[in-house]
Amino acid sequence: MDVVEYTDRLLKNAKESSRKIASAGSLLKNRALEKIAEDLRANKQQIISENKKDLNTAAEMGLSSSVIDRLTLTDARIDDMADGVMTIVGLRDPVGEVLDGCVRPNGLKISKVRVPLGVVAIIYEARPNVTADAAALCLKTGNATILRGGKESIHSNVAIYKVIESALESAGLDKRCVQVMETVDRAAVDILLKADEYVDVIIPRGGESLIRAITGKSTIPVIKHYQGICHTYVDKFADLQMALDICVNAKAQRPATCNAMETMLVHKDVADSFLPESIVKLREAGVEIKGCKDTLDVLTRHKDKLPDNCIDDIKLATDEDWATEYLDMVLSVKVTQSLDEAIDHIAKYGSAHSDAIVTENYANAERFTAEVDSAATYVNASTRFTDGGEFGMGAEIGISTDKLHARGPMGLPELTSYKYIVHGNGQVRG
Amino acid sequence: MDVVEYTDRLLKNAKESSRKIASAGSLLKNRALEKIAEDLRANKQQIISENKKDLNTAAEMGLSSSVIDRLTLTDARIDDMADGVMTIVGLRDPVGEVLDGCVRPNGLKISKVRVPLGVVAIIYEARPNVTADAAALCLKTGNATILRGGKESIHSNVAIYKVIESALESAGLDKRCVQVMETVDRAAVDILLKADEYVDVIIPRGGESLIRAITGKSTIPVIKHYQGICHTYVDKFADLQMALDICVNAKAQRPATCNAMETMLVHKDVADSFLPESIVKLREAGVEIKGCKDTLDVLTRHKDKLPDNCIDDIKLATDEDWATEYLDMVLSVKVTQSLDEAIDHIAKYGSAHSDAIVTENYANAERFTAEVDSAATYVNASTRFTDGGEFGMGAEIGISTDKLHARGPMGLPELTSYKYIVHGNGQVRG
């Protein structure tokens, strides 16, 4: 079967099965999820042996150790995958929730009811656990899913898919409601991206270039997760010890995540008291510093509080640095003249993901949370909390930097739409 | 100034002013809206004389009388426009509404708060009243707007815009929060559609080809309103008198609207009792009928109940008819063997806009509303009610056939996004 035929069949399968899964009850969906979790555990050896094929290819291709790490499946990681599926079993099914309703003067009873989106396509790179995660989240919310993983993980993804497929079947669900693309042909993706007749939403998970390429080509709505250039602004009225703890955590606890801090902004009035100690702590945590001119001046003035040669290691931050998501142990530092300058800097260079102010001043806290137009704005907490789990959603399909449909961490309700159901007794329009 | 420079400035103006309008209070926004309404009434003659220029061009170009009608502004129509703006003053401002919130076990207080989308671009055809409507809806919801009307209405749109602009200024708002593109150069639209750095959402209002072209080109999320191929299914258990009233209303009350019925589905068991009378009534209302083979057979059997030659006027419906939005006094009629066949027909040919069942049977009503995946599903009422006003929204920016973000009639809340505001007291992630 050629790629056009193959993709076409996949799309039709998804659309057809979406009608069935949409009306499946929570009990049936949960039973299928439990079976998936059970079968993932039961088929560990098979999955690991398929994963080895991917790992061998990755080694031959000379992929980086971090990619290989993300690709690797172990006994423990498959258990984690199964645990993740079981977590989703425990979450409330959002389908059917009545969001709003009224009786109109003419007697029409209108309710706005949560329904599945329909067909969700997820395009992702590397990590094969996304296959089980995304399938489980979409299944719980009554959506049919088309999963397209990276070619590096094709054997692992297909192995996980086969387990899911047979679990769905034995639970009595249409097995076509989860499908993994078993081809690595890019033409299949191109067809998928134009298939607005079949697919309701595309969720890409991966680097910015993947997401931009998909957005550029797709005629289907895309929920995007671009970069996270997150800021922490240490206000003039900050509790400096708290600011120190928050900044070190936001930067160094897990620098490769999108909610890690990339730029620290410090009000000029506290620069002398805050910068030397914080730079020492950040460097101790392994962070490389790039500072604005004022930052360098402050540090030079307080040379005696810094380790030898420390100043020489600190580079001057450029305009490009302010706009860079390092995802690494690197931090840009800027001294600002005012809260306004901090807010303007975030508007200009930020990515509207997560930004924090550290302050004890009520008015400044209020202004920052109101005027910084980010998915999450924080007062006196680390930006690292922007996460479905930390927000109490129980599970997360991604973090949206879009403003439409979903913003910030996306849980189960963000995988649904709604419809209006109208009950009348013969009303006609006058 | 060339078109690139011009569009660039427009985009930057919108983005800059969006930060200001986002935090403007309801009082200030309402004052500006009242001033707009007042100034529209005060400047009628100026607007009408600019409208004449468009009408002259339209006449020269030989545009159809329906286009010319939609384009024409009169005293009364400008009053309607101003009344529309005043209606929006009276609606509740959704910005700032707390949608959800919790305290996490670590003490973080999370609230999910409604905020403006940011910059909304509206691309529309013909009717110049959209300029005032859309500007007012976006202003009320704290969004900056870029309005791009059709070239047929450029003078009218600019005249209305000038009134709005000066009203904004005298109300003390940044006048750049509403901008009309004063060029008809298509290059300006092409730049706009790729300006994802500046624009948060595109809302096209117009025919399907306009919307498809925009969706194909845009890298910005588009809220679409495709066609409305709406069905009414007359069930075996229908109250046939009610079915008759509903079908005539759904088809003939205003056939050019997207919520008008295009196909009537009739269960075989009631075809003999329902079809002859309903066809007579529909024809009396001026509706041309296209029927399936069974429809023609039924009518032929009941020839005596129909006017002379009636049967000869009824064409056989083709596959194309089932998929056509006539927007006119034409109706496709199909006899179905079962509720299932009706639901399948709607899934295959419908446009997921508005579909109705007429029935007295509880189970069939429940199945129809659950299984028909449309923005609005009706039991025993006309599909003509799918409308912001009829749904109690007070105002409508369009009817979305998308499932993402907004579905069905879009009121003020659909012009907003949300953000998470998180208050802590030093929390860091462990």
Features:
homodimer; 430 residues; alpha/beta; Aldehyde Dehydrogenase, Chain A, domain 1; Aldehyde Dehydrogenase, Chain A, domain 2; 2 domains; seven-stranded parallel beta sheet; four-stranded parallel beta sheet; 16 helices; 45% helix; globular
Number of helices of chain A: 16
Rg of chain A: 25 Å
Greatest contact pair?
A: A-B, 68 and 68 residues
Largest β-sheet summary of chain A: 7 strands, parallel
Q: Label the overall shape of chain A.
A: globular
Structural class of chain A: alpha/beta
* Spatial sequence of strands, sheet with the most strands of chain A: 10-9-11-8-7-12-13
> How many structural domains does the protein architecture of chain A include?
2
Subunit organisation of the chains: homodimer
Number of extended strands of chain A: 16
- Mean of all residue-level pLDDT scores of chain A: 95
CATH class of the largest domain in chain A, named Alpha Beta
CATH superfamily of the largest domain in chain A: Aldehyde Dehydrogenase, Chain A, domain 1
CATH fold title of the largest domain in chain A:
Aldehyde Dehydrogenase, Chain A, domain 1
Low-confidence stretches of chain A: none
What is the percent of helical residues of chain A? 40-55%
Measured between the Cα atoms of the first and last residue of chain A, the distance is 55 Å
Strand content of chain A: 15-25%
* CATH architecture assignment name of the largest domain in chain A: 3-Layer(aba) Sandwich
List the helices and strands and how they pair.
Two copies of one chain form a homodimer.
Chain A: H1 3-22, H2 26-42, H3 44-60, H4 65-71, H5 75-90, E1 98-103, E2 109-116, E3 119-124, H6 129-140, E4 144-148, H7 154-171, E5 178-180, H8 186-193, E6 201-205, H9 208-217, E7 230-234, H10 240-252, E8 261-267, H11 268-284, E9 288-291, H12 293-301, H13 310-313, E10 315-316, H14 319-322, E11 330-336, H15 339-349, E12 354-358, H16 362-371, E13 376-381, E14 398-400, E15 408-410, E16 416-427
Parallel strand pairs in A: 3-4, 3-6, 4-5, 7-8, 7-12, 8-11, 9-10, 9-11, 12-13
Antiparallel strand pairs in A: 1-2, 2-16, 14-15
